[in-house]
Amino acid sequence: MQSCPTFARNWQELLVLAGIPRRYHDADQLLYSPPAGLEKLYQKVWEFLEDLPVQVAQGRGLLLKGNVGTSKTTVAVGVALQFLKLSCEPELLDLWAKPRSAPVLFVTMATLVENILSLKPSNPAEWARYEQRLRRVPLLILDDLGAEQPDDWIHAKLDALMAERYNNLRSTLITTNLSTDKLRDKYAERIIDRLRSCLQQLDFGGKSLRTPPLPVS
Ligand SMILES: Nc1ncnc2c1ncn2[C@@H]1O[C@H](COP(=O)(O)OP(=O)(O)O)[C@@H](O)[C@H]1O
Ligand SMILES: [Mg+2]
Q1: Is the pTM of this model over 0.85?
Q2: What residue's CA is closest to ligand 1, atom 10?
């Protein structure tokens, strides 16, 4: 097992600090085996990975769009895991120096909204720390944009977060099931415009890869 003594005692602990859900702990391995029909798209992901530290340092990210089950979250986490592994290499550590906090944070939009609504009023100090991390972490994964209930105040918060990350060249990977038109309907033009200028769009076509559970006999 890989170890990264600067951030955590071991790789598993680093994944927990980064908020990566267990289902996706080996997501980077799946980047080597694109599902049928997505070979070209995975090729683009590998091109992004080729100079990943530069992409992240310059605040460039990805917008992974497509139907449910087409491997968007897997690819986003796969990219983040590659970045985490690179971050453990001594020559890169100085770039993201903030020992004890992982240079990646994974959060679903639903959890983000829940934290804004519950953590903010119940524990303002904890929320302030969390918000700081959302704003500053070198690589943020915002999973399932659009799955949250429409709410002007939440969208204003999201706008502020994305503006801060955009202005400070922080990289973001966003997954969404929404089409470009639906994104436009849901979010203010300035959010869309910011996303467009710093995120490379990848369209995941095809059917869901999720296999149904085996029937109980
Ligand atoms: N490269 C791949 N090859 C085969 N199955 C994959 C691959 N990537 C992901 N999967 C599987 O497809 C399913 C959906 O992946 P997920 O990333 O959660 O999709 P989405 O985020 O688009 O809804 C999961 O069960 C996952 O394990
Ligand atoms: Mg997903």
Answers
A1: yes
A2: 71
| 155-203 pLDDT tens trace | 889 999 999 999 999 999 999 999 989 998 888 888 888 888 899 999 9
Contacts of 171 (CB under 8 A, 6+ apart): 55, 56, 58, 59, 60, 61, 138, 139, 140, 165
**Structural domains of the chain, with CATH:** 11-204 (3.40.50.300)
The finding on whether 70 has its CB within 6 A of some atom of ligand 1 is: yes
- The residues, any chain, with a CB within 8 Å of residue 3's CB and separated by 6 or more, are 9, 10, 11, 88
**Strand, helix or coil at 17?**
helix
Give the separation between CA 171 and CA 177, rounded to whole angstroms.
20
Q: Whose atoms come closest to the Cα of 79: which ligand? A: 1
